Amino acid sequence: MTMKILSCLTVLLAAMPLAAQPTTLRQAAAPQGIPIGAAASADEYGPPDLLLNTSYANLLSSQYSMLEPGNAMKWDVTQPTQTTYNFGPGDELVAFAQANQMRVRGHNLCWYTQFPSWLQPYAETATPAQMATLLQNHITTEVTHFAGQVFAWDVVNEAFDDSSAAALRDSIWYNQPGIGQTGTGYIAQAFKWAHAADPSALLFYNDYNIEEPGPKFDAVLSMVQDFVNNGVPINGVGFEMHVLNAYYPSATQLAQNMQALAALGLQVHITEMDVRLPVDASGNASAADLQTQAQIYQTIMTVCLQQPNYTAFQVWGVSYNDSWIPSVFPGYGAALPFDFNYKPTPAFTALMTAMQTTTTPPSLKVSNVVNAASYQGGPVAPGEIVTVYNSTYGPATLVLGQPDATGKFPTNVGGVQVLFDGVPAPLLYASANSGVGAIVPFEVAGKQQTVVEYQYNPASGAAVSNTATLPVAAAAPAIFALNESGSGPGAILNLDYTVNSASNPVSAGGYIQVFGTGGGAIVGGATDGAPASGAANLATQPVTATIGGVAAKVVYAGTAPGLVNGAMQVDLQIPAGLTPGPQPVVITVGTAVSQSGITVAVQ
Ligand code: 9MR
Predict the structure, then answer these.
(1) Which of 316, 318, 321, 322 to mutate to test the pocket of ligand 1 (most atoms within 8 A of CB)?
(2) How high is the pLDDT of residue 33?
(3) Is 484 a catalytic residue?
(4) What is the pLDDT of residue 12?
(5) CA diameter of the chain
(6) Residue with CA closest to ligand 1 atom 15
(7) Domain positions in the chain
(8) Rg (Cα) of the chain, in Å, rounded?
(9) Selected catalytic residue, list 68, 142, 272, 384
(10) 581-589 and 543-547: which strand pairing?
């Protein structure tokens, strides 16, 4: 049966097609394994809706692979009264992102400012217990609403002040009246509530002026160290990076801070970069200042790309037109890589250069490990088939893993081994250029993190071994695309085992088999690297699916009999009433959702 897809699985997985010469930021960022994003707006404070401005929308979707609502997910927008929520603008931004295969960073759940008008007066008479309930409800409601859509949250924002003591800021959540916790306890509590609402989302603490050593960074570091030691679910720290030509961290300082967090197994996202410049009455900067600014962008991006725990980059605004700088720092502006005409500035060229010329130093980076079906990074799940990029260390030509007589894949291919907490992963193939196809051992189930070790012992020459710490989730589903690109027509069979396609569509009421990975643990267990002997359900429940946005009946979700354990098969029934043509297929396992952009041809 199914030869076209199934016997070719290793080939299907074997190589991420690398774009020719990249011309956009998102194309240049893709081979580096990082999403590159911009803060974005819809109409959260009323018309006009920026997403309806085609210059804005086209620039956002063509240049960026990620967006973060600059305001639409903050309290003042999302909870306009104590009993009502408004997720409309956030939903609009999420829909835009999904339609353009972009990821969404959520910002933010707990901050000392930007409140709806009722909140401050409420806090003035509320008890800590009432404040705790309020914050818990807000976090739970918002994170649940965006579960599976927001891949990473700024859970708590800017909690430390700028004094030399770097004290916790006064806030209604901390001490006025606070939620009844001392010190950083309220922050830890916020992370726990967010994690409970979406265990798949990556959780970040976000702040400014922590890009270089100093008391504020020390305060953040000691807090997150305490969180890691005590099992508070935190995955990383956001460095805002609002800098100016006269003040920015040196390469050494930035690297030092990122390494201090890497030592704790934490990621770093650059979350809000802009470099503000003195501007004339029309908002334009001098050519000389633009060149200096470009150098700063290039340095920051280059340093970050060399750090193993760097997993996302973002600027704070799409173009000069929507930057926050001129209104807050009169006389300053021109802070972003695109100008008033949505045209690239020297900073754009500098970012492109950094992404195209920075080579991977001898280390495994968190961003090097991506889902083999979606090419997206994030938490790894038990049995997930991942691609590990490590361009220097591997066989020069592709070596396929040869299954043994029982069909089990080896754990050493071409001298490469990938270990998860010391357990060797079955390998499908290995190549210095196209990466290594590895299957996350089922042994990671139930863990919060896993230390991944990449070893290369060539027959001759020096062995190398590097580690990176990755978050673990119960599931991280993604659907294979037929053309290996991570989006477009899915690896989907119709009921007669022929490949679904525009010329071979499925009708309403018909059945399809969708192939992916990242479904997580299997009921009854599964042997690493062995072929699935029969149908066995995913252990993470529930499994749901939509086709064309309409709920589709899940007939089966589990192993793909005959394929290696870790491949996921989901059988769906096509709902009635869909428009003929390609319709998006989305599978949710627990709270984790497959990537956007995979389609099935419907008749
Ligand atoms: O860009 C945001 C701007 O539109 C708002 O008016 C402002 C209000 O506080 O918040 C801006 O975004 C901030 C972000 O949420 C946190 N870091 C600093 C950003 C710039 O102020």
Answers:
(1) 316
(2) 85
(3) no
(4) 45
(5) 75
(6) 70
(7) 34-357, 478-602
(8) 24
(9) 272
(10) antiparallel
Q: Which atom of ligand 1 is nearest to the CA of 240?
A: 17
Exposure string over 267-305, b if 16+ CB within 10 A, otherwise e: bbbbbbbbbbbebeeebbbeeebbebbbbbbbbbbbbbb
Cβ count within 10 A of residue 313: 28
Residue 361 is predicted with a pLDDT of: 58
Is 240 a residue of the active site?
no
Q: For the chain, first and last CA: distance in Å?
A: 23
Residue 539 corresponds to which tokens in the numbers above? 């252990």
Please report which helix (H) or strand (E) contains residue 185, including its range.
helix 185-197
Q: Looking at residue 460, what is its pLDDT?
A: 66
Ligand 1 midpoint to CA 137 (Å): 23
Which pLDDT score is estimated for 541? 78
Q: Structure pTM? A: 0.88
- The class that CATH gives domain 478-602 is mainly beta
- Residues ≥6 apart with Cβ < 8 Å to 12: 5, 480, 484, 491
Nearest one of 529, 536, 602 to 569, comparing CA atoms: 536
Catalytic residue among 142, 158, 240, 384, which? Answer: 158
Over the stretch 327-343, which tens digit does the pLDDT of each residue have?
999 999 999 999 999 99
Q: Which helix (H) or strand (E) holds 207?
A: strand 202-207
Q: Which fold has domain 34-357?
A: TIM Barrel (3.20.20)
Residue type, 392: T
- pLDDT value for 9: 52
Low-confidence ranges of the chain (pLDDT < 50): 1-8, 10-19
Q: How far is the CA of 325 from the centre of ligand 1 (A)?
A: 10
Pocket (CB within 6 angstroms of ligand 1): 70-71, 113-114, 157, 240, 272, 324
* Distance (Å) from CA 221 to ligand 1 centroid: 23
Cα 290 to averaged position of ligand 1 atoms, centre (Å):
23
